[in-house]
Amino acid sequence: MHDKTLTELRAGLQAKDFSARELTEHFLGRIQARDGELNSFVTVTGEQALAQADAADQAIAAGDQRLLTGLPIAHKDIFCTEGVRTSCGSRMLDNFIAPYTATVVDNMAREGAIMLGKTNMDEFAMGSSNETSFYGPVRNPWDTERVPGGSSGGAAACLAARLAPGATGTDTGGSIRQPAALNGVTGLKPTYGRVSRWGMIAFASSLDQAGPLGLSAADCALMLQAMAGHDDKDSTCLNEPVDDYLGALEQNLDGLRIGVPEEFFPDNLDGAIADNARDAMRELEKQGAKLVKVSLPSIKLSVPAYYVIAPAEASSNLSRFDGVRFGYRCEAPKDLEDLYKRSRSEGFGAEVKRRILVGTYALSAGYYDAYYKRAQQVRRLIRDDFARAFKEVDVLMGPTSPETAFKLGAKADDPVNMYMADVFTIAVNLAGLPALSMPSGFVDGLPAGTQVIGNYFQEGRILNVAHRYQMATDWHQRIPGAFQ
Amino acid sequence: MAIDSQVVARVAHLARLQVDDGESEALSERLNEILGMVDQLQQADVSDVEPLAHPLEVSQPLRDDRVTEPDVRDKVLPIAPASEEGCFLVPRVIE
Predict the structure, then answer these.
(1) Quick check: A205 contacting B, CB < 8 Å?
(2) Which CATH number fits the domain that encloses residue A53?
């Protein structure tokens, strides 16, 4: 059963080929048997999952099969889940039992989804390798000496290893798309505001967006259909009707204009990575798409702009962790200041502290204009570049990541080098656009991903492009040898 | 603008973080590398460019001023590090 997509499993449940309980037991068994090698889960919620599975079987028997009824989903441990530890990959929240449930988790549960557990991630989603997690790194199922990417590394790794058939993630600068690429799965970051951020632990609020990771574009469409929609509890969640993503999948690609930004193919890019993305575009050309050269001159400044804006917002968001109301508190504080300082210093890991310091510095008196204001001005230039491009083309494409999965520890003491892992994904967050990564083959035996970027609210279009590509290719069906 | 141990100490205090002397130098080095990368922003011509805070430039929606949140005291106090008589407990602030 574990080699099947959510779409196939859904049909299997409907045809009563197997029950939701059998399906859930199968995945729980795989997690128990194999996750020791990957560390992709922080918490497994077996008992609750089986109770949800029994409820799903009753619903199916009563003829009430919804979008996700009986389908097991792994939630990133950044989404609050009432009564279940929600750690965000941090010692700070190691003891945090969320008192409420995130809208994303609720929306999916309402459509019948079963929660298998909570997946490992970079601490507070700050990282591109999953090595900053308090619970230790996740390993890449294609080569367990390598990283799975991050920050949604647990989500992508458990999918690739077929320990779960669907997963949720969040993407602030590439945290869904880059791990999807490095693990050979499909991951979608929706338009900013398409999915509610309520109950999703905040990193950089003007960039954070939740989305699905799946074994196919069709599976991502199915999950997004359940996740998306307006939520009164998140004032940045847009009140726009949710499109029919499943209905859009099959459209033909005749006349589709694919923009190829020259900035996604810089001279120093690994030739094999560039060829991989070009091959994917060639496949779409065969289906009637036309390639158009475009330029996004300001996106070369997206990494520097991001590393002002994201840490600045993080320094503000993470000020709530003070050792007073929830989370970690240091032993025997001598006064209130000591309580704050030691709780935060002992509770946060090195990368989180670095980013809080960068953000605090950038926002401090005398530096605000030089850093924060300028970064937001550059953010407008970047957004305007995309707006110009989308007057000429329907989607933009290029490699998701400049490299395949790197070795554990390879960039551990080199933050700036690590930040470059997201060089092709970050601009999309600054502009608030939807984008996905789809598996497009292998480079030296490791998965490579191609990114498809759409205009605002064009999730249906980019899912359609990826689905048509996946109908003609089988990269997304490949399973790591050790996890067949 | 180079960051040295003194700047680290000042910023760490603003962020209510404790930086030990032993880690201060390595930390300054990393922060300087990050800010060195960030300094590429100075290349951009941003004259007459308005800062962009929200990518879609939408305004905050208004809602009716009604009580919607229930009293959650019984849910939030049990997860607090320390509480007493319905309040969060912190070290003595006023002598």
Answers:
(1) no
(2) 3.90.1300.10
